[in-house]
Each structure stands twice: as C-alpha cells, then as structure tokens.
Specification:
The N terminus is likely disordered. Strands 1-2-4-5-6-3 form a six-stranded antiparallel β-sheet. It starts with 21 loop residues before the first helix and ends with a strand. Helices cover 19% and strands 40% of the residues. The protein is α+β, with helices and mostly antiparallel strands.
Length: 151
C-alpha cells in the first residue's frame, strides 16, 4: 500500500505560521548562548531559515579550529527557531535529538546554517541543517528532531 502524505507535511507555500521578519526573530532568540556566540538569523525563504555565527575566540577550541560544540549549538538554534516559527501560537517545539557530522575545519571568518524541514508533523518535526563557510564549502551537516507540544 502506498502511503499518502499527511496534510501536515511541508506545503508548497510558506511554512511559517508567525510573522517571518528578521528583526522579530532575532529579538526572540537574542539572549543566552545565542548572543554570547554572536549568532544571528540572516535569511528567510518560503521553506528555510538561515543563521550566521562568527568563527572567532568565542567559537574556536584550543587548536584554533571551529569548536564542534559551537557548530552543534548553531544547528540546534536555527532548527529550534525555525520549528517554533512553523507552528501555531497554541504550540511550541523542543529538541529531542541532534545529530551532526563535522566535515571540514574552519579557523576564521563566519559560518552559516540553513534549516529546512524534512517533516512537519503534528507531534514531531525533523529538520535538516547544512553549515557552510563564506565560500559555500560544507563544514557540518546534521539533523534535529523536535517534539511539538501544546501550550
């Protein structure tokens, strides 16, 4: 039997349920680790959200390379913000699983993480995130699973 997609799969039009403007989104997620690491949401399309993070003394490890934990924090941040922007006001999303592969190193500059929904279900969402450097080289890739909860 061929399974038909549920109505909650990613629609062809915009997936955002809240006003998707950069100022509002950045104010929502400015405090805490996001601000400390210099993360900022930089782009929104109909089906993706992108955030940047500098590669500097805040985000590198002892050898001067981009810290894997900083990359993981960027991945989780953009997936979490995107997930919460894709649900109605009576719901919120929290992370339940994070998987990341570090594919190349980075010493300076910045990286950008772009989140795209693989699944927007009523109780579970899955987001794919690629992290690239300013030249478009893939630095890390991963997946974030989010639980959707009612307020």
């Amino acid at each position: 039997m061929l399974l038909q997609p549920e109505p909650t799969d990613v629609p062809m039009s915009s997936i955002w349920k809240k006003p998707a403007d950069l100022d509002t989104i950045n104010q929502f997620s400015l405090d805490g680790l996001v601000g400390l690491l210099g993360m900022k949401v930089t782009a929104i399309t109909e089906d993706s959200m992108t955030a940047s993070m500098p590669v500097d003394e805040r985000t590198t490890q002892a050898l001067g390379l981009l810290h894997g934990g900083a990359s993981a924090a960027l991945l989780e941040t953009i997936a979490s913000v995107a997930a919460n922007w894709s649900v109605d006001d009576d719901a919120f999303c929290v992370g339940v699983e994070l998987n990341i592969n570090h594919l190349s190193s980075k010493r300076e500059g910045h990286v950008e993480a772009t989140a795209r929904a693989l699944r927007l279900g009523q109780t579970i969402q899955v987001w794919s995130v690629d992290i690239v450097d300013e030249h478009g080289n893939l630095v890390s890739t991963g997946r974030m699973t989010m639980a959707v909860r009612k307020r």
